[in-house]
Amino acid sequence: MNDVATALGRLEELAIEVPSWAYGNSGTRFKVFGTPGTPRTVQEKLADAAKVHELTGLAPTVALHIPWDKVDDYAALKEYAAGLGVGLGTINSNTFQDDEYKFGSLTSSKEAVRRRAIDHHLECIEIMHATGSKDLKIWLADGTNYPGQDDMRGRQDRLAESLQEIYAALGDEQRLVLEYKFFEPAFYHTDVPDWGTSYAQTLALGDKAFVCLDTGHHAPGTNIEFIVMQLLRLGKLGSFDFNSRFYADDDLIVGAADPFQLFRIMHEVIRGGGFGKDSGVALMLDQCHNLEEKIPGQIRSVLNVQEMTARALLVDTAALGEAQRAGDVLAANGIFNDAFYTDVRPVLAEWRESRGLPADPLAAFKASGYQKKINEDRVGGQQAGWGA
Q: For the whole model, what pTM was predicted?
């Protein structure tokens, strides 16, 4: 395996963006669960996110969701976040909650609906100018439930036209990342159901448009690391939304269902040049903590990514390449397994301590009294977010 000290040295490059909405109330399609200490404002979401970064050193930026995180003064919000020790990251649009978007937003057959959806994204770009955000992330709920309900090709054409206008408004240093999801809430067809559709649409836009890969948005059995490899090879992987799934888009803690898959994904990210501050690939979380407490859930998530990244950095790529060229199947697989089964948790604890971070961030959070304090302080009001 590669030297542990060398691998840990590269961990300095690891940064994971956390989503503001992960700290709010969430649930299933049947019930949204309220919890004590739920943030009532975007400022309180940022405070919770800052606590995650304070204890782990892994989460320096926070993704915002518009309109859930709308404020009157984004420059002031940026300054407030900086005072907490975090920055404002990706701006996520929302065209899936208003009644007007029932039959589509950027793909709608109604020009007025498309106009409203496009204008919303143009507003998001203006917010990006104020926050200094680099990425506009678009996920669409657009699709149909029944054969013949709408013209699938026409919807792709309308999507392309809508995206072109949004793309043209981007600043020189800004990017558009288009997320895909193979089903839900549309069940017959989804307008951006797979990486190929997202790739085709972003390729047509230009070199500031990329694919966002959500690790929960694939059919069972899909080889996600192959998609990661291909998008890196094509220069079109812009960002990740990390989470975990057992059946569909479960949005569980990343690595919960299949840590070996997360390891394999990170191996391809590292091998393909997608790891590091200058790689152009943003690592983000996109999770809903329905049962567990929100802040510990985010801490656990970023630690899981860190652990699997450390293991992936241990893969002896020179020996692996030699075994692959020799056609030695068992040796190649064994090199992978040796790295994956290495328990890096003790050395990661030492690594954190050497940087002034707690060896066990979860224990440190529990001992901090932060959760008790926000449970007592945050009474009344209602946070803006999905279903709550």
A: 0.96
